[in-house]
Amino acid sequence: MPVYVVLLKFTDQGIRDIKNIPDGIQGSAQAFEAMGGKMLGLYSTMGEYDFVGIGEAPSDEVALTYLLGLGAAGNVRTTTLKAFPVEQFTEMVKKIT
Q: What is the pTM of this model?
């Protein structure tokens, strides 16, 4: 399955609602799994981003649908990176002519 790295920042609403965020994380992970995704890791971070998530989804469409819903809830804004395993990257490089 495709892998995605998601960088998350709290919105003003999200930081005001910080005490409820842990419960929201659990529900969000369950919603992602119900869509066929899998949360591989979620880390609270210091610096420009408040969280970094790593997950798998069966397609870009599923990933985007989930992320749009996450953003629509209003607590975070996301920046998403599609990630490729080094083995897949190596195969792509071999095809360069």
A: 0.91
